[in-house]
Write a structure and sequence with these properties.
Number of helices: 12
Organism: Anaerobutyricum hallii
Keywords: ATP-binding, Ligase, Manganese, Metal-binding, Nucleotide-binding, Purine biosynthesis
Enzyme class: ligase
Largest sheet: 6 strands, antiparallel
Cofactor: Mg(2+); Mn(2+)
Pathway: Purine metabolism; IMP biosynthesis via de novo pathway; N(1)-(5-phospho-D-ribosyl)glycinamide from 5-phospho-alpha-D-ribose 1-diphosphate: step 2/2
CATH topology of the largest domain: D-amino Acid Aminotransferase, Chain A, domain 1
Helix content: 25-40%
């Protein structure tokens, strides 16, 4: 098979690696890709939002399967564009990707179908939002309605902070058009867990659990980022929690989307908060998480193409989804100053070390090949991932592997997975 992957980050590198392990993949392309993805795929200079060019390329090269990695093209309707030309593509259509594209839509969906989530209100004007805040309990959470690179969520401890947050989102448009509408919701406390799942419109099969670390600095301080590291599985995602979510969250979400005429085919990412009142949904995404994919996919036993094709053909119920009985930890190496401002173009050394060790991976997020070699080309640069027999061993291995890589302005959190110290792992 010829496979095209659309995207350029660490998630797409992890997908490219998984596809390269498939006995079915003869040739892999990635548009636009990055310097790390080149190891497995031929990178093509077409942007993820250039739908006409992507479709033309897929037809010209007779691509058998296209995998959409990123949220923007999914929400924009890239799957519809491919399907209109009779091309096989993995990902939700535009009318289903709205579950990520509009937080207001997803909150209303959960309310209508009794899927547990935080109390909330939607607002399309700053005046109404500010009036609501005068009677609200704090802390409180403000969310830009649309896509904001994982950064459009503000946790406000006081009325003054919340008023400033409304200004940031709706007046200053810090997150662009994503802030034309906003959601204000109650603040939930508990452990966060991410669960990715394959979906075929009717059936949903969950992958092993993971936990992301969104804040830029140690101790969950600093600004929200696209993700500074992950571990899998989460020891807090017990069998009891899993059974509750299967009954009250995952299948009800699939059924709700189908009932709304928006059958969901692709990857559904459910962000959960394990509260004292039980698990509740924080958010949905319509694609693999980044960096969750970097710890989940290396542990998957199945051929990823088999599973994706089963989703497209509506026969996911035939797939026995299996994962290794081990653990993985990913530590993101970023450019100092991320997520605000940072320098690019620094030469990265030590990447060859990963080829010498089994169970160690270096997924490229923001890199570029130049005459000087591979250089930094983004805020999040690399995702250093390692496996271990348990979480503590995986964490030790991942941090040891971060020392193999050097580049100027290298920055990382030092407490990824520290929560697992509280439990037997």
């Amino acid at each position: 098979m010829k496979v095209l992957i659309v995207g350029s980050g660490g998630r797409e590198h992890a997908i490219a690696w998984a596809v390269s392990q498939s006995a079915k993949a003869d040739k892999i392309y990635c548009a636009p890709g990055n310097a790390g993805i080149e190891e497995y795929a031929e990178c093509v200079n077409i942007g993820a939002m250039e739908f006409d060019k992507l479709v033309a390329f897929a037809k010209e090269k007779e691509i058998d399967l296209t995998i959409i990695g990123m949220d923007d093209p999914l929400v924009g309707g890239v799957v519809d564009a491919f399907e209109a030309e009779g091309l096989r593509v993995f990902g939700p259509r535009k009318n289903a990707a709205i579950i990520e594209g509009s937080k207001a839509f997803s909150k209303d969906l959960m309310k209508k179908y009794n899927i547990p989530t935080a109390g909330y209100e939607n607002f399309d004007s700053d005046e109404k939002a500010l009036a609501y805040l005068e009677t609200a309990k704090f802390p409180i959470v403000l969310k830009a309605d649309g896509l904001a690179l994982g950064k459009g969520v503000l946790i406000c401890n006081t009325l003054e902070e919340a008023k400033e947050g409304v200004k940031t989102i709706m007046e200053d448009k810090k997150f662009g058009d994503a802030g034309n509408r906003m959601v204000i919701e109650e603040f939930m406390t508990g452990r966060e867990v991410s669960v990715l799942a394959f979906c075929d419109g009717k059936t949903i099969k969950c992958m092993t659990s993971a936990q992301d670390h969104k804040r830029a600095k140690d101790g969950d301080q600093g600004l929200n980022t696209g993700g500074m590291g992950t571990f899998s599985p989460s020891p807090f995602y017990t069998k009891e929690v899993e059974e509750f979510c299967e009954k009250y969250v995952y299948q009800p979400t699939m059924d709700a989307m189908a009932a709304e005429g928006r059958p969901f085919v692709g990857i559904l990412f459910t962000g959960l908060m394990l509260t004292e009142d039980g698990p509740k949904v924080l958010e949905y995404n319509a694609r693999f998480g980044d960096p969750e994919a970097q710890v989940v996919l290396p542990r998957m036993k199945n051929d990823i193409i088999d599973v994706m094709e089963a989703c497209i053909d509506g026969r996911l119920d035939e797939i026995d989804l299996q994962f290794e009985d081990n653990a993985a930890v990913c530590v993101v190496l970023a450019s100092d100053g991320y997520p605000v401002s940072y320098e690019k173009g620094y030469v990265i050394n030590g990447l060859e070390e990963f080829k010498k060790h089994d169970g160690y991976y270096c997924f490229h997020a923001g890199t570029k090949r130049t005459d000087k070699g591979i250089v930094t080309n983004g805020g999040r640069v690399l995702g250093v991932t390692a496996k271990g027999t348990n979480l503590k061993e995986a964490r030790k291995n991942a941090y040891a592997a971060t020392e193999w890589v050097t580049f100027e302005n290298k920055y990382m959190r030092h407490d990824i997975g520290k929560a697992i110290d509280d439990v037997e792992a």
